[in-house]
Structure formats: C-alpha cells, structure tokens
Amino acid sequence: MIRTLFCLIVILFIVNCEQVIVDEHGIFELKNGTDNHKYHELTEILRKISILRGINAVLEWDQQVMMPTKGSGARAEHLAEISGILHERETDPKIGELLTSLESELHTLDAYEAANVKLTRKDYDRKTKLSKDLAEKRAKLSSEGFNTWVEARKTNNFEMFAPILTQWVALQKEIANLIDPSRDAYDVLLDDYEPGTSGQEIDNIFSQLKTELIPLVAAVRRSNSQVDDSTLLEQVYSTKTQEELSRKIASEVVGFDFSKGRLDSSAHPFSLGVDTDDVRITTRLRNNSLLSGLRCTVHEAGHALYEVNLNKKYKGQTVQRYIGVAIHESQSLFWERHILMGTHFWDKWYPHIKDLFGLKASKEIMFKSVNKVNFDNLIRVEADELTYPLHVILRFEIERELFNGTINVNELPKIWGERMEKYLGIKPSNDSNGVLQDVHWGSGYFGYFPTYTLGALYAAQIAAHPTISGWVRENDYNSIINWLRDNVHSKGSVTMTSEQLIKDATGEKLNPSYFINHLRSKYKSIYDLE
Amino acid sequence: MIRTLFCLIVILFIVNCEQVIVDEHGIFELKNGTDNHKYHELTEILRKISILRGINAVLEWDQQVMMPTKGSGARAEHLAEISGILHERETDPKIGELLTSLESELHTLDAYEAANVKLTRKDYDRKTKLSKDLAEKRAKLSSEGFNTWVEARKTNNFEMFAPILTQWVALQKEIANLIDPSRDAYDVLLDDYEPGTSGQEIDNIFSQLKTELIPLVAAVRRSNSQVDDSTLLEQVYSTKTQEELSRKIASEVVGFDFSKGRLDSSAHPFSLGVDTDDVRITTRLRNNSLLSGLRCTVHEAGHALYEVNLNKKYKGQTVQRYIGVAIHESQSLFWERHILMGTHFWDKWYPHIKDLFGLKASKEIMFKSVNKVNFDNLIRVEADELTYPLHVILRFEIERELFNGTINVNELPKIWGERMEKYLGIKPSNDSNGVLQDVHWGSGYFGYFPTYTLGALYAAQIAAHPTISGWVRENDYNSIINWLRDNVHSKGSVTMTSEQLIKDATGEKLNPSYFINHLRSKYKSIYDLE
C-alpha cells in the first residue's frame, strides 16, 4: 500500500507522460499476413505470457543486482507466484485447441506464422505432457540437488552427490520418454538447448576437435615462446576507469544502446532481456585484472545485441525467440573472441586504453595476454579459448555414457581424472576441482555443456565468412552488427533449427574446420609453432 | 526465454541456496488466535494479493530508479498486466462470501482479526461497488487529466485545465455516492487518506491554525533578525560525500537497515515498501545545497521505518497496513522536523558534518538555515515548516467549497490569488505558479492535501510527549525508534482510525496546540520575536 501511495506521488510528479501515453498506445499490434482469427487469438495469448516473462525478468535482475539481502524471502514468494501464473497460462487448454485447429491450416500461414505454430506446439507439449507429480518431483530434485551440490563441492564429498546424479539420470530419462518415446533420451534433452541436433552429430564434430586440439595443446605447452604478461599483471587498474572503458567499448564496438539497457556489476556476469527495448547486462571488474573485465563486458554485450535485435514484428511470439543456446553463445563469443581477442581490435583500441591506464604492457603483449593458454587450469569456467573445448567434450562424453548406461555414476571421479590427463595433461587433486566443479548436473541440466563449444564453432564460422572477415580487419563494427541483425538476430526461430540458420547465414552447414583453423593459426603465431 | 536461460545460470552460480531454502520454508505461516478456517481462507487470499502488490512495487521502483528510458513501453504493459490480475483477485466474490460469514462471527475473533475483517470489507466494497464502466471512466480521466495538467501548467493555460476539474468533481461525487450515500462526498474521499475524519473536523482544526499562523508569519516577516545563510550557500558540497553522510544519518539516526533496504537517487525522492524486509528510499542530492538532501533522506527514512516495523505477525493482511496517509506523513515529518531540524541534532552532529565538508557556516547558522522561512515562495512543495500549512489550508478550503458547490471551477484562479495574499501576503504572477502548480487534482486526488498538515500535527504531538521529548533532548534515537515501533508502526490499522491510534499512543486525541506551540517557540527564538 505504501508503495501505491508513494509511487502515486512519484509517478505523478515525475515527468513521465511518456509512460502514460505508452500505456494508451504502446501495446504492440501484431501485423501478420494472415487474417486467421484463431491465429491472432493464439498470438494474443502468447503476447500476454511474454509480458509475465518480462515481469519475471525484472524480478530476477533485481534479485541479482539490486535487492537487499533480507529481501530474498519475499522475492522467493514473488517468483513462485509469477511462475505459478505463468504455468497456468502456458498450459491453458485453449492453446492446445487453437494449435490443433491451426495445424490443419498451416498452408494458409506465412513462414514465420507457421513456425510460430510449430514452436508453440513444441513448448506446449513439453509443458503439458508432464504430470503435475512429475513436474513437482523435478522441481524438488532441482532445489535439493543444487543444495546438495553446494555442500558436496564445499566438503569435497562425491559420495554425497552421487545419489542425486543417479536420480537425475532416471528422472530425465522418464521425462524424455514422455516427450518423445521415439528418440534417445539424451537427444530429447539436447533438443532443449540445440534444436534439431543429436548426440551422434555432436559426437562426430567433437571427435574431429579432439583429434586436432589434443596435439595442438601439447605443442603450445612445449613451445619455447611462452606469453610473458608480467608487465600487465604488475599494474593496478581502477575499476571506475574500467567501468568507463566497458561502457565505451560496449557501445562503440558492440553497439550497446544505453537507452535500451543497463550495464551494472554483479558477482556473476549475465545478460537478461526484459524486453527488446530493455536488455540488461552485468560485468565483473577487478582492479588487478584489466582483460577479464573487458572480456565479461564484451561477452555479455554480444548476448544483449541478439535480444535487442529480435524481430519486433513478432513481439512476444514463440517465433521471435532466439533459436537456441548454442547460437546465443555464438553471438557473445563472436564479439569476445573474434573482435576483442583479435589483433585488429588492439590496432584500433590500444592507444586509447594505454592513455587511459598508463599501460606498461605493449600492444603485442595485450593481444598475447588476452589469448594466453593456462595449462594448469582444471576449471572449465576459467579455461582459455584453446583448452575450453576439451573441458566441454569430456563432460559431453560422460553425459552420453551415463544416459546410454555404458558407465555408472560411481565411476565418474575416476573417469574424470583419466580423461583430464588424456585430454589436457593435468589431473584434479580432488573432486571439488574435478567432477564436482560444475553447477549443471546437480540442477538437472544435461545436454547444456555442448552448447558452449558449438557456440564457439558457430562464431568461428561466422567470423570466417568472407564479408565478415573483411569488416573485422577494418574494425567496421556497424556493418557486422547489421549483418548479424539481418542474418541471425531478426530470424528468431523461424528456421526451426540452428543448422538451417547457419546454412542460410553462411551458405554452409556447421563446419568445425573454421574453428580449428582459427585456433591453429592464432596459436601458431602467438606461440611461434612451426 | 533468454532471461530464463541466463538467470538459470546466474541463479545457480550465485550462492543463493538461501533463496532456495526460503522458497521451501520461507512462506509466512499466520499464527492467529482463531481456528476459524474461513478466517484463514481469507488471510491466505489476502496474503497472495499482497505478494502481487510486492511484485508491482518492484516494477514501480525499477521504473523510477533503474529502467532504461526506452523500457517504458514494456513497463506500461507489465504494470497493466499486474493491475489486471490484482483487480481480479481483489474483487473475487469468494472474498465477499467469506466476509459475510465472518461478519456474523466477529465476537470469536481477537481485535486484530476483527479489524482485519472490517478493513477488508471496506476495501472490498470500495472496489466492487464501482461498475466496470465507472472504473474505466476514472482510469481514463486520470491519465487524460494528468496529461492535460502537464500541458496546461507548461502553457499557463487554466482554461485548458478547467473542464478536467469539472469532470473530476462530478465523477468523484458519483463514486462517493455509490460508496456511502449517507455521507458528504468530500468526507467519503477524505476517508481514503485519513480514515474516520470529516471535512468539518479538519476545518475546526485548520481554523485554529489559520488564526495562529497568519499573524506569526507576518511577525516573522517583519522581524529585524532575518536568517543570513550566505556562508552556507557559498560552499559546494560533493554529492558523493553527501551520499555517505545520508547513509550514515539514515542508519545511525533513523535506524535504516541496509540489509532490509536501499538508498538511491531519483529526481523525485520517495519511499517504497516491497516487503517489511525490503523497503527502498531515494533522495536528491545537489552540490549547491547540503540541507535539502539531508531533509529528503531523513524524511524518506522516516517513512521507511514505518514500513519496516509493520507487524510481521499479520504479514500481507489488511490490518498490517499503515493506518493512513496522515499518520504515515507524521512518521517522516517527525524525523525531519523534530530531529534533523531541531537544535539537539546539530549539537551532536555539527562537528562531524563540519569536518566532512570543511563547513564555513557555524552550528547556529546550520540550525537557523534549515528552518529559514522563505516569504516569497509561492510553491507548496518548496515551502518551509511555518508557511506550509497555509498552502495546504488554502487547497483544503477550495476542495470543500468545490464539492459543496459554493464556488465553481472558473473562479479558482481569482480565489487562489486572493487567499494567497490573505494568508501569505504574496500573489502568484500566473496560474502555473498558482492554481496549476499541483499534480493532485488533474489525477483526481481530492482530500489528499489535508494529510500533509495533519501529519505535521501528529508529529508535533508525538514529539511533545514527555517521554519522547526527553529522548529528543538526549539524541537517544534508539529509544524513540522502539517507542514508535510499539505505539505506532506495529499497530498497523488495528485502531481503525488515526484518532484512536494517536489517543492510545499519546493519551490524547489530536490537539493542534502542540504544533502551534512548537512553531511559536521555534520561530520566536530564531527570528527573535518578543
């Protein structure tokens, strides 16, 4: 009530006629080709659902960035309430009826509209095929699993975590079987993150990577010209100045529009879309590390660019949504790895950054440092571009084997150690920096890991596209932004699969050789390999 | 979706098991005396409604403090969606049924429970007695009226605004008549802001004030010892240092707990309660004015203290809510006027503030300046403690006369000028700084103005209480905070009227002589009157 009272005063005192005007006219009218009233009935239901998702986004952003610590109890109630209302609307039988009748009229719809119906069906089935019991069982295991994982990692106790893992594999198999009994359970899970792919396809790609990367990592390790970043590390970099630089680069390089978003700090950087006109990112700045902050900012700004450029014509519609986690990751990795971590960026930006901080490190050192390989690193999230895929491949292989039953949970610590040694030449000293290091499995996310590396592959293929690589050389960021908007972002999910999207955009289906060549040529030059 | 995706990662990576645990156990269990299951059915409905209000509060706070400008369109949709869901739940016929059956069993409930039923009935009737048409008519006029007011004030065009005012008076009479045909329309409107009072009662009080204040203002104006604050005004005060001071004083004086709230900046300072454990205030700091920022901070922190101390036992219940706008204002004015603007505060804090800014002004000048009377000020929101009530009385009288038909809208500019001259000895040069200066009427808020001055009266009566005045002299803020919590904040609305609350708290019904004596003695000493 008090908020009503004071916000009344605030809302009225504040010059926000805009708010009022928007309130009257701002609600987006879909202008679709079809005059099928059932279709428009469906889009209106979807639009309303997307408004609730936007509300949820504000609550989650506030929770991570602004909320006072003791507000967490009330916030948990806010989020539970919204997700209750959301679930009710997302599983509304009316959606099912409309879909059924529209599915017989798909030929009357244009490509976006037809995709909208098909994608909504997919969402609707995944939500409604689960019994209330099963959904609750999953929710319960998800929070229990997360808490157990936190405790197990803290106390380096895999035995504590093993039963959770066993339950998850069983439960996810059960769920996958309900969603699509005709496919492998693991493939059904993958579909949530990379639509249209399969474990086998990914395995084919990852096998090529392994064959190339394991010797490359070994060669880099043996190299006599290791990167010396001591001049960089001995300096202190004011976080205030880093923030200014972050804002400048987010806006001048990645085109982050501060009238449509915010950049704040948080312990764990993330990007979050409230709306295409309100996309917020966070970064993490430390005064002993200039490059990690820059990488965070550019990475999240890359994600944000995708959200800002989603096709407004399909606002709130399933087809407007990004095509998958892997492609989303490719948009952040493109800017982080192919722009920020490339030589051309440093040609352009080095003088400014040098002035800003009185940099001691040379331009060459900056470029080499941001690409430096850390051979002794056991932790995926801290891995460099070269070793990261091997961390991912190890997890992907273990997930598949768990689901097809060729290994069992208790063997994981042993298998983890052996493969780390085989792939990266290092062995974890304990399970906390080994099999227990990632949050995903405790919360039931299986099939998510591959997307980190698939994203890297997509990014490399886009960067290798002749048109793009020219713009990268010229630091012509605007042309890149426009190309990405037209060929990736604005497409939403109309292609139904990432494979089709990348084919339309680059003229070729996903081809790992672009990523491999990118790594080979870059690390050959940095580490002076023959 | 992207937010789901990234917040998934965020929520999981962030150490917020707390969030999860709270999610499981944090939902507040009402422990009421009665075992009446209908009563608990009602309280559960109310608790759910209060969660939605909390969500609405986060959206409004974000809109005012954090949201990027172009996010306003989506935010308007978020707020419209939530208010739609809220309206649906607040007018749920189930509430009516439960109330009807509980009203026959009031004797089985304790005082808080009985008040909870009565207050919920009051809310429910006020929401359900309006037809959908009438509610929409009001909403439409409210936004049209606000926009017209903005334009009219900008262009100094009262004729443009007059029709809105005429429509509002007619509409509010119609609404008041539906709510309670047995009472004067204006009294029904007053009841929204100061429950249990009447225009006649307020008029009796305000008449005494007028009789005392008009000559007092005149005497101060004639005084030969005017306040010279030039040494204060010639300095520049870093807003960063002001912010530190604001935080220190909010927490060490008013007891603002930063684990349960935030202090930010906004163009128009406000206080907003998301939950008793998440109460947020904003302030406005300008480097050319040290005192106005301090006053904003302390004022809003006073409001926040009320919200934080509301009785958790009745979380989400109607009876937990503050008793009225006037009492709420008294809690902010108590800290602003009787602590910050008093001599004892400066005895304790002057040395620290002097060091912080290298103050040139003496302690005496600081005290006099914060209380300085600005005779030529035509604007209510910029008025000092002494002249403010006369601005309010003028508006209150005009409102009453508009509603009982003794004046009509077109006369307002003339009447405004005459009374400003009579009460304050100044005349507006145009309508923009006269009758068009306030936001309230354009948006249909009639009966709100008196609460500013009633709040000042309540604050003065509390400050004059022997126990309190002793603590004020000793700067014993904690004892004051505890007393206010036990005698005002935690009472919520159990007393049903502000009159009963102040009587229980101070042993006497509202008595304007405390306020009058406070002003007389303070301004006699500052302006050296005989």
From TrEMBL, chains A, B:
Pfam families: Peptidase_M32. CDD domains: M32_Taq. Residues 1-17 form the signal peptide. GO terms for molecular function: metallocarboxypeptidase activity. Keywords: Signal. The active site is at 300 (proton donor/acceptor). One of its GO terms (biological process) is proteolysis. Transmembrane segments: none annotated. PANTHER family: CARBOXYPEPTIDASE 1 (PTHR34217:SF1), METAL-DEPENDENT CARBOXYPEPTIDASE (PTHR34217). This is Metal-dependent carboxypeptidase. It comes from Acrasis kona.
